[in-house]
Write a structure and sequence with these properties.
heterotrimer, A mainly alpha, B alpha+beta, C mainly alpha, B: alpha+beta, five-stranded antiparallel β-sheet, 4 helices, C: mainly alpha, globular
C-alpha cells in the first residue's frame, strides 16, 4: 500500500527533525516542557495536513513560476487560522508558545513538504504524507520536551515524577541545554540506525 | 502573456479566498478570544485587588459610560447581591511606554489595592513599580491629596531613580479615583 | 517615551549578546546549521541576512503602522509580513542581478533561503510586539542581525576545524554541530549578567 508507506516514512526513515534536519527553531525553543512540545507539534501537524491537502488539490492550477508565492499564501492562511483558534480555545498554551505560532509559517518542513511532495502527488497521498510527517514531528518534540522537563525540573507534563531528593538540573531547560540535548538525541538515533544496518 | 495573466489571476484568487475566509473565522472567534483574554490576562489582576466577594466579577463585567463617549470596563465585587467594591484598569504614560494598572476601589472611595498589569519600564529601576513594597502604599488611601508623591505632600514614597515611573502610577491611580468619585451614582445604577 | 542614549546602548547590547537571536531565542537555526560549514558561506549568509533583516523589519513596521492598524487588520500580521519578506527578497534578488552582478554572484544563492529564515520574520514580529518606535526598530533589527552574524561566523570558525578531528561516528555532522552550538550558547549565557 502506497498510502501506508507514505504515512510511515515520516515516523522513522524520514523522521523530522532528526532525519530531515529542518524546522529546528521551534524544536529548540518550545521544548522546555513536554506539554509545550506536544501543543506545538499538533499545531504544526494541523497546518501541514491542511496545506498539503490544498497544495495537492491545486497542483495543476498553480503556474510553476509563482508556486512558492502561492504555497506561502496558503500556508500563512492556515497559520493565521491556527493563531485565532488557539487564542479562542487554548489561550494559556497560546501565551506560552508566543512568537513561535506565527513562525510556523517559516517552518521549513511545511514549505518543504508542499514543494517536494504535495505539488507532485495526489490528495490522498499528500494527506498521508502530512499526517506521518506531522505526527513524527509531534512525537519528536514531545520526547525532547519530556526529557528536558524531566531532567531540568523533575516533572513530566507538569506532574512531579522524581523522588523528593532529586535535584533538578536546570541547565536542561535553559537555552544551551536545548542544543546539547538535541545533539545527543540525534547522535543516539544515528547510533541506533548504524547498529540496525550492521 | 497568457501565462502572466494566469499567474496574476491565480494569485489574486488565492489571496481573496484566504482573506475572506480568515475574516469570517476572525468574526466567529472574536467573542471567545475576548473572553479568554479577560480570563487569562485580567482575572489574576482583578483577584489580586478585590477580596471577600461571592459573585463572579468576570461574568458580571460591564462597560460603564461616563458621557462624552468615554467608557471603562469595570469588574464589580458583590456580597449577597450588594455592590461593595469594583476593579477597573487605569493607565498613564511612564518612562518606556504605557503603564497599565488594575485598581480596586470600594464604594466609600477607598483604594482596596492596585496591581501593575502591563509596563515597559527599565528593569531594576522603573520596573520595581510592580513590587509589593511600592503598590501596597496605595492601600486604604482615599483623599486625593494623599495619592501623590511625598515630594508633593502625598503619602507615596517614589522609587529612587524612577520618579517618572512612580509618577505615572500615582497619576493613573488618582485619575481613576477621581473618575470613580465623579460617577459613583452612575456606577451604582449600572450594577 | 523619551529614550536616553544609554537606553539605546542597552538595546544594542541586549540584541547582540544577551538575547542573541540565534543562541538565546532560537531564531534562524536552519541556515545556522546549514551554511556554517565554511567561513566564506557564513560571511555571505551573515551579510545577506543583515541586509534583508533591516529592510524587512522596517518595511513591515511601516506596513503594520500605516496599513494594518488603521484598517483593524492586525490579525493578518503573519500573512502580510511573510508576503512583504517574500516580495522583498525577490526584488532584492532582481535588483542585484541587474545592477551589481558581483554582489549577486556571491550572495545570490542565499537570498531564496532567507524567505524561510525565521529570524527575519521573528524580528519583524518582535518589533511590533515590543511596540518599538521607528528608530528603535531600525537599531534593534540591525543589532539582531549583527548578533546573528557574530554567532554564525564564530560557529563556522569552529566547524572548519572539525575536518581535522576524529569525531565519533554517531556524532558526525549535525549532531556535533548542535553540541558545539550549545557550548557557544553557554558562553553567550554569561552576558546575561551584564544587563541585570
Amino acid at each position: 500500500m502506497r498510502i501506508v508507506q507514505e504515512f510511515t516514512k515520516g515516523l522513522w526513515n524520514e523522521l523530522p527533525p532528526f532525519r530531515l534536519v529542518l524546522g529546528l527553531c521551534p524544536v529548540l525553543a518550545v521544548t522546555t516542557a513536554a506539554k509545550n512540545g506536544l501543543g506545538m507539534g499538533l499545531a504544526t501537524t494541523f497546518v501541514l495536513i491542511c496545506s498539503n491537502t490544498l497544495v495537492s488539490m491545486m497542483r495543476n492550477i498553480i503556474p510553476s513560476k509563482v508556486r512558492i508565492a502561492a504555497f506561502i499564501v496558503i500556508i500563512a492562511t492556515f497559520v493565521v487560522a491556527v493563531e485565532l483558534l488557539m487564542q479562542a480555545y487554548v489561550y494559556s498554551l497560546y501565551q506560552q508558545l508566543g512568537i513561535f505560532i506565527p513562525l510556523i509559517v517559516v517552518n521549513c518542513i511545511i514549505l518543504g513538504r508542499a514543494e517536494a511532495f504535495a505539488s507532485k502527488n495526489s490528495v490522498m497521498l499528500s494527506i498521508a504524507d502530512g499526517l506521518g510527517m506531522g505526527l513524527g514531528f509531534t512525537a519528536s518534540l514531545t520526547l525532547l520536551g519530556g526529557i528536558r522537563e524531566l531532567i531540568g525540573t523533575g516533572q513530566l507534563f507538569g506532574f512531579s515524577v522524581m523522588s523528593a531528593h532529586y535535584e533538578p538540573f536546570a541547565f536542561m531547560v535553559k537555552a544551551p541545554g536545548a542544543f546539547i540535548c538535541l545533539g545527543i538525541l540525534l547522535a543516539v538515533m544515528n547510533y541506533i540506525s548504524m547498529q540496525s544496518k550492521a | 502573456m497568457r501565462d502572466i495573466i494566469k499567474m496574476f489571476i491565480v494569485l489574486t484568487v488565492i489571496c481573496c479566498v484566504s482573506g475572506v475566509s480568515l475574516s469570517i473565522l476572525k468574526d466567529k472567534t472574536k467573542d471567545k478570544i475576548a473572553d479568554q483574554e479577560i480570563k487569562f490576562v485580567k482575572e489574576p489582576a482583578v483577584l489580586s485587588v478585590l477580596a471577600g466577594f461571592d459573585n463572579d466579577p468576570m461574568i458580571e463585567r460591564k462597560e460603564v459610560e461616563f458621557g462624552n463617549d468615554v467608557s471603562k470596563l469595570m469588574f464589580p465585587a458583590k456580597k449577597d447581591g450588594e455592590l461593595f467594591a469594583l476593579a477597573m484598569e487605569v493607565s498613564d504614560v511612564g518612562y518606556g511606554g504605557d503603564v497599565n494598572i488594575m485598581l480596586g476601589i470600594d464604594m466609600e472611595g477607598q483604594i482596596r489595592g492596585i496591581s501593575i498589569t502591563k509596563h515597559k519600564e527599565t528593569p531594576g529601576l522603573g520596573a520595581r513599580i510592580s513590587e509589593a513594597n511600592f503598590t501596597k502604599q496605595f492601600k486604604s488611601l482615599s483623599v486625593s491629596g494623599d495619592i501623590a508623591l511625598t515630594s508633593k505632600g502625598g503619602k507615596i514614597e517614589a522609587i529612587s531613580g524612577a520618579t517618572i515611573s512612580s509618577k505615572a502610577v500615582v497619576k493613573a491611580v488618582s485619575d481613576g479615583v477621581a473618575i470613580f468619585k465623579d460617577n459613583i451614582e452612575n456606577i451604582k445604577n449600572v450594577f | 517615551m523619551e529614550w536616553a542614549l544609554s537606553d539605546y546602548f542597552i538595546l544594542v547590547i541586549l540584541a547582540v549578546f544577551v538575547n542573541n537571536i540565534l543562541l538565546a531565542q532560537f531564531l534562524g537555526n536552519c541556515p545556522f546549521l546549514g551554511t556554517s560549514k565554511n567561513m566564506d558561506t557564513a560571511l555571505g549568509m551573515a551579510m545577506s541576512v543583515t541586509f534583508v533583516m533591516v529592510l524587512a523589519g522596517t518595511i513591515s513596521w511601516m506596513v503594520h503602522k500605516f496599513l494594518l492598524i488603521p484598517y483593524e487588520l492586525e490579525y493578518l500580521q503573519t500573512l502580510t509580513f511573510i508576503l512583504v519578506i517574500a516580495a522583498l527578497v525577490q526584488l532584492v534578488e532582481m535588483f542585484l542581478q541587474k545592477s551589481v552582478p558581483t554582489i549577486y554572484r556571491s550572495l545570490g544563492i542565499f537570498l531564496p533561503l532567507i524567505t524561510t529564515n525565521c529570524a527575519v520574520l521573528g524580528v519583524a514580529i518582535i518589533n511590533i510586539k515590543e511596540d518599538y518606535t521607528f528608530l528603535q526598530t531600525l537599531i534593534f533589527d540591525f543589532s539582531s542581525a549583527v548578533g546573528f552574524g557574530i554567532a554564525l561566523i564564530l560557529f563556522a570558525g569552529l566547524r572548519e576545524r572539525f575536518a581535522l578531528l576524529k569525531i565519533p561516528k554517531p556524532f558526525d555532522g549535525t549532531a556535533i554541530g548542535l553540541v558545539t552550538a550549545g557550548l557557544i550558547a553557554l558562553a553567550f549565557y554569561g552576558f546575561k549578567g551584564m544587563v541585570g
